[in-house]
Design goal:
Elements (H helix, E strand, L loop, with lengths): L3 H10 L7 E5 L2 E6 L13 H9 L3 E5 L5 H8 L3 E6 L2 H9 L5 E3 L9 E6 L13 H10 L1 E12 L6 E2 L5 E2 L9 E8 L2 E2 L3 E4 L3 H10 L3 E7 L4 E7 L1
Parallel strand pairs: 3-4, 3-6, 4-5, 6-7
Antiparallel strand pairs: 1-2, 1-10, 7-14, 8-9, 10-11, 10-12, 13-14
Helix pairs in contact: 1-4
GO molecular function, one term: methyltransferase activity
Keywords: Methyltransferase, Transferase
InterPro entries: Methyltranfer_dom, SAM-dependent_MTases_sf
Length: 233
Protein backbone atom coordinates (compact mmCIF):
# COMPACT_ATOMS: atom_id res chain seq x y z
CA UNK A 1 0.00 0.00 0.00
CA UNK A 2 1.54 3.29 -1.15
CA UNK A 3 -0.95 5.31 0.92
CA UNK A 4 -1.51 7.81 -1.90
CA UNK A 5 -4.78 8.86 -0.25
CA UNK A 6 -2.96 9.74 2.96
CA UNK A 7 -0.08 11.43 1.14
CA UNK A 8 -2.51 13.66 -0.76
CA UNK A 9 -4.25 14.62 2.47
CA UNK A 10 -0.92 15.37 4.13
CA UNK A 11 0.26 17.46 1.17
CA UNK A 12 -2.90 19.55 1.22
CA UNK A 13 -2.77 20.09 4.97
CA UNK A 14 0.93 21.01 4.95
CA UNK A 15 0.58 23.53 2.12
CA UNK A 16 2.11 21.38 -0.63
CA UNK A 17 -1.06 21.09 -2.69
CA UNK A 18 -0.43 20.86 -6.44
CA UNK A 19 -3.13 18.51 -7.72
CA UNK A 20 -6.20 16.53 -6.70
CA UNK A 21 -6.61 12.80 -6.26
CA UNK A 22 -7.72 10.91 -9.36
CA UNK A 23 -10.12 8.02 -8.90
CA UNK A 24 -11.41 5.35 -11.26
CA UNK A 25 -13.43 2.13 -11.05
CA UNK A 26 -13.99 -0.71 -13.48
CA UNK A 27 -17.41 0.73 -14.33
CA UNK A 28 -16.56 4.44 -14.43
CA UNK A 29 -13.96 6.66 -16.07
CA UNK A 30 -11.30 8.62 -14.23
CA UNK A 31 -12.58 11.46 -12.07
CA UNK A 32 -11.03 13.98 -9.70
CA UNK A 33 -11.61 14.12 -5.96
CA UNK A 34 -10.87 17.69 -4.79
CA UNK A 35 -8.67 17.51 -1.71
CA UNK A 36 -10.41 20.58 -0.29
CA UNK A 37 -13.60 18.48 -0.02
CA UNK A 38 -11.90 16.20 2.50
CA UNK A 39 -11.38 19.22 4.77
CA UNK A 40 -14.94 20.55 4.54
CA UNK A 41 -16.60 22.20 7.54
CA UNK A 42 -19.97 21.16 8.93
CA UNK A 43 -21.61 23.99 7.01
CA UNK A 44 -20.08 22.68 3.76
CA UNK A 45 -21.22 19.10 4.28
CA UNK A 46 -24.24 17.62 2.46
CA UNK A 47 -27.45 17.28 4.45
CA UNK A 48 -26.98 13.52 4.77
CA UNK A 49 -23.69 13.94 6.65
CA UNK A 50 -25.02 16.75 8.81
CA UNK A 51 -27.96 14.55 9.80
CA UNK A 52 -25.65 11.70 10.79
CA UNK A 53 -23.46 13.99 12.90
CA UNK A 54 -26.53 15.50 14.56
CA UNK A 55 -27.72 11.98 15.48
CA UNK A 56 -24.35 10.85 16.85
CA UNK A 57 -24.25 10.45 20.64
CA UNK A 58 -22.33 8.81 23.47
CA UNK A 59 -19.00 7.18 22.73
CA UNK A 60 -18.43 7.49 18.97
CA UNK A 61 -16.24 5.53 16.55
CA UNK A 62 -15.54 7.34 13.27
CA UNK A 63 -14.57 4.58 10.81
CA UNK A 64 -12.54 5.49 7.73
CA UNK A 65 -12.13 9.02 9.06
CA UNK A 66 -9.82 10.27 6.29
CA UNK A 67 -8.74 13.83 7.04
CA UNK A 68 -10.93 13.76 10.15
CA UNK A 69 -13.50 16.43 9.32
CA UNK A 70 -16.35 14.57 11.02
CA UNK A 71 -14.32 13.89 14.14
CA UNK A 72 -13.06 17.47 14.29
CA UNK A 73 -16.64 18.74 14.34
CA UNK A 74 -17.78 16.20 16.95
CA UNK A 75 -14.81 16.94 19.20
CA UNK A 76 -15.57 20.65 18.98
CA UNK A 77 -19.04 19.72 20.29
CA UNK A 78 -17.31 18.05 23.26
CA UNK A 79 -18.28 14.58 22.03
CA UNK A 80 -16.23 11.50 22.94
CA UNK A 81 -14.93 10.35 19.54
CA UNK A 82 -12.27 7.93 18.31
CA UNK A 83 -11.18 8.31 14.67
CA UNK A 84 -9.70 5.33 12.83
CA UNK A 85 -8.32 4.84 9.33
CA UNK A 86 -6.01 2.35 7.61
CA UNK A 87 -4.03 5.28 6.16
CA UNK A 88 -1.05 6.18 8.40
CA UNK A 89 -0.65 9.61 6.80
CA UNK A 90 -4.34 10.42 7.19
CA UNK A 91 -4.13 9.62 10.89
CA UNK A 92 -1.03 11.78 11.16
CA UNK A 93 -3.04 14.69 9.75
CA UNK A 94 -5.92 13.94 12.13
CA UNK A 95 -3.54 14.25 15.06
CA UNK A 96 -2.09 17.49 13.67
CA UNK A 97 -5.66 18.82 13.40
CA UNK A 98 -6.06 18.23 17.13
CA UNK A 99 -8.08 15.01 17.22
CA UNK A 100 -7.24 13.54 20.60
CA UNK A 101 -7.94 9.90 19.73
CA UNK A 102 -6.84 9.11 16.17
CA UNK A 103 -5.64 5.57 15.50
CA UNK A 104 -4.17 3.85 12.45
CA UNK A 105 -6.33 0.74 12.60
CA UNK A 106 -8.58 -1.55 10.55
CA UNK A 107 -12.18 -1.75 11.80
CA UNK A 108 -11.89 -5.55 12.00
CA UNK A 109 -9.14 -5.14 14.63
CA UNK A 110 -11.03 -2.70 16.88
CA UNK A 111 -12.00 -3.72 20.38
CA UNK A 112 -14.34 -2.05 22.87
CA UNK A 113 -17.94 -0.86 22.93
CA UNK A 114 -19.48 2.22 21.34
CA UNK A 115 -22.80 4.05 21.35
CA UNK A 116 -22.44 5.32 17.78
CA UNK A 117 -20.43 3.92 14.90
CA UNK A 118 -20.10 6.28 11.92
CA UNK A 119 -19.53 4.88 8.43
CA UNK A 120 -19.84 7.95 6.22
CA UNK A 121 -18.83 8.78 2.63
CA UNK A 122 -20.19 5.44 1.38
CA UNK A 123 -18.67 3.87 4.46
CA UNK A 124 -20.80 0.73 4.17
CA UNK A 125 -18.59 -0.24 1.25
CA UNK A 126 -15.53 -0.80 3.43
CA UNK A 127 -16.29 -4.54 3.54
CA UNK A 128 -15.55 -4.61 -0.19
CA UNK A 129 -17.78 -7.44 -1.38
CA UNK A 130 -21.32 -8.53 -0.61
CA UNK A 131 -20.11 -12.01 0.40
CA UNK A 132 -18.23 -10.43 3.31
CA UNK A 133 -21.15 -8.33 4.54
CA UNK A 134 -22.34 -10.81 7.18
CA UNK A 135 -18.88 -10.96 8.77
CA UNK A 136 -18.63 -7.17 8.61
CA UNK A 137 -22.03 -6.63 10.23
CA UNK A 138 -21.33 -9.16 12.97
CA UNK A 139 -18.10 -7.31 13.80
CA UNK A 140 -19.95 -3.99 13.98
CA UNK A 141 -22.67 -5.57 16.10
CA UNK A 142 -20.05 -6.84 18.56
CA UNK A 143 -18.77 -3.27 19.00
CA UNK A 144 -22.18 -1.79 19.85
CA UNK A 145 -23.47 -1.08 23.32
CA UNK A 146 -26.93 -2.48 23.96
CA UNK A 147 -28.74 0.65 22.74
CA UNK A 148 -26.04 1.62 20.27
CA UNK A 149 -26.43 2.63 16.64
CA UNK A 150 -24.58 2.42 13.34
CA UNK A 151 -25.06 5.41 11.04
CA UNK A 152 -24.00 4.66 7.49
CA UNK A 153 -24.58 6.03 4.02
CA UNK A 154 -24.26 4.54 0.58
CA UNK A 155 -25.75 4.70 -2.90
CA UNK A 156 -27.58 2.41 -5.29
CA UNK A 157 -25.49 2.71 -8.46
CA UNK A 158 -28.15 1.11 -10.66
CA UNK A 159 -28.44 4.50 -12.38
CA UNK A 160 -24.99 4.00 -13.88
CA UNK A 161 -26.21 1.17 -16.11
CA UNK A 162 -28.30 1.34 -19.28
CA UNK A 163 -32.03 0.77 -18.79
CA UNK A 164 -34.10 -1.17 -21.32
CA UNK A 165 -37.64 -0.35 -22.45
CA UNK A 166 -39.05 -3.07 -20.17
CA UNK A 167 -37.43 -1.42 -17.15
CA UNK A 168 -34.60 -3.94 -16.78
CA UNK A 169 -30.95 -2.92 -16.70
CA UNK A 170 -27.93 -4.10 -18.66
CA UNK A 171 -25.46 -4.87 -15.89
CA UNK A 172 -22.08 -6.31 -16.88
CA UNK A 173 -21.19 -9.47 -14.98
CA UNK A 174 -17.92 -8.16 -13.60
CA UNK A 175 -18.70 -9.13 -10.01
CA UNK A 176 -21.33 -10.98 -7.98
CA UNK A 177 -23.36 -7.86 -7.15
CA UNK A 178 -24.01 -4.71 -9.15
CA UNK A 179 -22.59 -2.44 -6.47
CA UNK A 180 -19.21 -4.15 -6.33
CA UNK A 181 -16.31 -2.35 -8.01
CA UNK A 182 -12.55 -2.33 -8.12
CA UNK A 183 -11.31 1.10 -7.06
CA UNK A 184 -8.11 2.75 -8.26
CA UNK A 185 -6.44 5.87 -6.82
CA UNK A 186 -3.80 7.90 -8.67
CA UNK A 187 -1.76 10.79 -7.32
CA UNK A 188 1.32 12.58 -8.62
CA UNK A 189 2.07 10.03 -11.35
CA UNK A 190 1.69 7.11 -8.96
CA UNK A 191 -1.04 4.50 -8.87
CA UNK A 192 -2.35 2.50 -5.93
CA UNK A 193 -3.14 -1.18 -6.49
CA UNK A 194 -6.84 -1.66 -7.20
CA UNK A 195 -8.88 -2.52 -4.11
CA UNK A 196 -12.43 -3.86 -3.69
CA UNK A 197 -15.21 -1.44 -2.78
CA UNK A 198 -18.97 -1.69 -2.65
CA UNK A 199 -21.96 0.60 -3.05
CA UNK A 200 -24.94 -1.13 -1.48
CA UNK A 201 -28.61 -0.38 -2.12
CA UNK A 202 -30.80 0.08 0.94
CA UNK A 203 -32.96 -3.04 0.46
CA UNK A 204 -29.90 -5.27 0.25
CA UNK A 205 -28.41 -3.65 3.35
CA UNK A 206 -31.70 -3.95 5.23
CA UNK A 207 -32.09 -7.65 4.38
CA UNK A 208 -28.53 -8.33 5.50
CA UNK A 209 -28.98 -6.56 8.83
CA UNK A 210 -32.19 -8.50 9.54
CA UNK A 211 -30.39 -11.77 8.73
CA UNK A 212 -27.75 -10.76 11.30
CA UNK A 213 -30.19 -9.99 14.10
CA UNK A 214 -30.38 -6.23 13.68
CA UNK A 215 -32.80 -3.64 12.35
CA UNK A 216 -32.16 -1.10 9.61
CA UNK A 217 -34.10 2.15 9.32
CA UNK A 218 -34.04 4.52 6.35
CA UNK A 219 -33.34 7.95 7.82
CA UNK A 220 -32.91 10.01 4.68
CA UNK A 221 -33.09 9.35 0.96
CA UNK A 222 -31.37 11.78 -1.40
CA UNK A 223 -32.18 12.73 -4.95
CA UNK A 224 -29.23 10.84 -6.44
CA UNK A 225 -29.90 7.28 -5.21
CA UNK A 226 -28.02 8.06 -1.97
CA UNK A 227 -29.34 7.40 1.52
CA UNK A 228 -28.57 7.46 5.23
CA UNK A 229 -29.44 4.40 7.31
CA UNK A 230 -29.53 3.70 11.05
CA UNK A 231 -28.76 0.16 12.18
CA UNK A 232 -29.49 -1.05 15.71
CA UNK A 233 -29.49 -4.36 17.60
Amino acid sequence: MKDLFGKAIYDYFSGNYTENLKTETDISEQDELPLSYLFRTYQQMPFLEKKALDMASGKILDVGCGAGSHSVYLQEKNMDVIAIDISPKAIEVCKLRGIKNAINQDIMQVKGKFDTILLLMNGAGICGRLRYLDIFLQKLKSLLNENGQILTDSSDIIYMFDQNEDGSYDIPLLHDYRGEVNYIIRYKNQEEAAFPWMYIDFNTLQNATIANGMTCELIFEGEHFDYLARITK
